[in-house]
Structure formats: structure tokens, C-alpha cells
Design goal:
The two termini are 14 Å apart. The protein is built from eleven helices and 17 strands. The chain is globular and about 60 Å long. The chain has helices spanning 41-48, 97-100, 141-146, 148-161, 178-189, 201-209, 222-229, 247-253, 275-280, 293-306, 321-330; strands at residues 2-6, 15-19, 29-38, 64-72, 84-87, 90-91, 111-112, 124-128, 132-134, 169-172, 193-198, 214-217, 235-239, 254-262, 284-287, 312-317, 336-340. It has 343 residues and is α/β, with parallel strands linked by helices.
């Protein structure tokens, strides 16, 4: 099969396009003939090398994908060859205390397709059968490839962890990335009022077109803007995956009794924190990573009922994988960058 892969960690110059062996599904896994895949910031981190995460080389990246069932491993039932499917990129053992109580993303051996095993930037990939779902009929192949990782992450942040309710207010930092845009779409579909930030005027304008209630330029005035928009009250829920650059703003933008949920720290992991505001305003700070199988099923059902469409920035052919990585690295995208395989 053809694939985008790398033989050693480093920069974009390490990426190669060429032939790799077609993977075989083990017990409980299936092989998918991929029609499309999509990039996440995770793919840049995996390429560069993650401290403490051993990755067998050569390696094929990519957590997101869509295609048809091509082969099934031992013990897999209830699926049919040629069935169009998407899948939860999370991998869990199914046996530890967390898996047994349904908290798969807390699994002691939790991993991701494209990080802990070879991924989707190829013509074929193998994934756990337990995370399969029918391809949403209202999405084309490229859109279906673009939602799994960002939407499951966003669903858990907003719903399972953040307990977002209709009529509440949400602040989302760094609009334009996949998770931030998915949070915007889910929150609006749930009846929330949503404010977004970005350093890009064009991204703020596009976010307003997608339904954001207000859009603020990133920087020192964000807290003032939020307080003005909420009559000095602050927001019920802050979504912060930026980290050091925005953490202080998040704490100061939250209403009394508000929640702050984070799934990442793209600007750095060690922000300043005014702990007095945390206890005085009785804030709740929540960490979140991916989601459980229950989160996955509920999210896919919600996406289908609400007919949400992930925002696709651009679609390139698989052999243009290095260009796709470069666009992601440059931060020029608004939405997901998708790689397309030949039909």
C-alpha cells in the first residue's frame, strides 16, 4: 500500500511517501480501506517525537479516517465487509478498573491510532472494532474523515466534563483549530451563547459566520471584552487548549462558580495562575482527554441528529501529505486538513 511515513523523528523533511506493508487485523480489530484521513496537531508532535512515548519506526501517522471494512480479526462480529465506517481513534485495554466502569480514556494503557500504533495516512489501517460507527450519511468522505478526534474531544470537554447546559455562556480560545471549531458547533447546537478569540481577523469573521455570538481579538483586552459582553458577569464555561498564553485570561473570564476545561497547552504547559481567584470565585478546573466509548456513541448520534458538518480547510491527495503537514505547522488552516485517497 502507499502511505505517508517517517523513519526517524524530526521535521517535515523526514516525511516520505512510498510503499508500506498492508497491516493485518489482530483479534478484536478490523482493517479499513481508507477513503480519506485528516490531520491533527498530534501528528506534528508524533513526527517530532514525544518524550516518554516509544514509537516503533518506521511509522505512519494519522488518527482520523473513514473508509470501508476490508477485513476482520478473530472474534469480531456484527460488521460486514464493504460497510462504510468511521471509528473512535482511542485505544483502551477493556480490562482495567477504568475501562470496566466505562471510562476508557482513563485506561492505564490508553493510546491513540497514529501514535501508539500505525495510523491512517495510508491506503489501509487497522483499528479496534469496538470503536466503529456507521459513516454519517449526511457527510461526504472528506467531512467524515474530519470529525472523529476533534468532535469526541470537544464532546467530552463540553458535555461529559463541562456539563454545558442550554442558555449558558462559553468562551473558546484560539478559534480556527479543529477542537475549537467543533466546540463552537456543538455548543451552539446545544443552545449556548458562544464567544471566541483569535489573533486572526479573518478567523474571527469566519467564526461569526458559523454562529459565534461575539469574536474577540486575542491579547490583553480579552477579559475586558468578555466582561463587557456579559455585563461584568463572566462566562459559565471556558474552553482552553492554548495553555500558558491564555490561562490567566480564562481564570479572569469565568463567572463565579464557573468551569474551565482544558485538553491541551499548545502555547506552553506552565502558565501563571492566580490561585486566589480560583478559590474566591469557587472555580472548577477540569482536565479532559479524548472520550469514552459512551461519549463516542452519544457524540456520533448528536452529530447525525443535528446534522453538524465539520469545517474542512482543504483537501489534498495522499501523496501531498508533506504539504498538509506544512500547512498545519504554519497555522494557516481554518478547520481540518484532509488527505484523500483514490476511490
Amino acid at each position: 500500500m502507499q502511505a505517508i511515513y517517517f523513519k526517524e523523528h524530526g521535521g517535515l523533511d523526514k516525511l516520505k511517501y512510498g510503499r508500506r506493508s498492508r497491516p493485518e487485523p489482530g483479534p478484536g480489530w478490523v482493517r479499513i480501506a481508507l477513503r480519506a484521513s485528516a490531520l491533527n496537531h498530534l501528528d506534528l508532535f508524533v513526527l517530532g517525537g514525544l518524550p516518554g512515548v516509544p514509537i516503533n519506526l518506521p511509522h505512519v501517522g494519522g488518527a482520523d479516517g473513514v473508509g470501508t471494512i476490508d477485513a476482520v480479526g478473530q472474534g469480531v462480529v456484527g460488521v460486514e465487509v464493504d460497510e462504510p465506517v468511521v471509528f473512535d481513534p482511542g485505544i483502551s485495554c477493556g480490562d482495567c478498573e477504568f475501562c470496566l466502569r466505562g471510562e476508557h480514556s482513563l485506561c492505564i494503557r490508553f493510546g491513540l491510532v497514529g501514535e501508539h500504533c500505525e495510523g491512517t495516512f495510508a491506503e489501509y489501517a487497522v483499528v479496534p472494532a469496538s470503536g466503529l460507527a456507521a459513516k454519517p450519511s449526511h457527510l461526504n468522505w472528506e467531512e467524515a474523515a474530519a470529525f472523529p478526534l476533534t468532535f469526541i474531544t470537544s464532546w467530552r470537554m463540553l458535555v461529559s466534563r463541562g456539563c454545558l447546559g442550554p442558555g449558558e455562556t462559553v468562551l473558546i480560545h484560539g478559534i480556527g483549530g479543529g477542537v475549537a471549531l467543533a466546540c463552537l458547533q456543538i455548543a451552539k447546537a446545544m443552545g449556548a451563547r458562544v464567544y471566541v478569540t483569535s489573533s486572526s481577523a479573518s478567523k474571527l469573521e469566519r467564526a461569526l459566520e458559523l454562529g459565534a455570538d461575539a469574536a474577540f481579538e486575542s491579547g490583553s483586552e480579552v477579559v475586558k471584552d468578555v466582561r463587557k459582553a456579559t455585563q461584568k458577569r463572566g462566562v459559565d464555561l471556558v474552553v482552553d487548549s492554548v495553555g500558558a498564553a491564555t490561562w490567566s485570561q480564562s481564570i479572569r473570564s469565568a463567572a463565579k462558580g464557573g468551569r474551565i476545561v482544558t485538553c491541551g497547552a499548545t502555547s506552553g504547559p506552565n502558565p501563571e495562575e492566580e490561585v486566589r481567584l480560583v478559590f474566591w470565585n469557587q472555580l472548577t478546573i477540569l482536565g479532559s482527554t479524548m472520550g469514552s466509548r459512551s461519549d463516542w456513541r452519544r457524540m456520533v448520534e448528536f452529530l447525525c441528529v443535528a446534522e453538524l458538518r465539520p469545517v474542512v480547510d482543504s483537501v489534498l491527495d495522499l501523496e501531498q501529505g508533506a504539504d498538509a503537514y506544512r500547512r498545519l505547522q504554519d497555522g494557516a488552516q481554518f478547520g481540518k486538513i484532509v488527505l484523500r485517497n483514490s476511490a
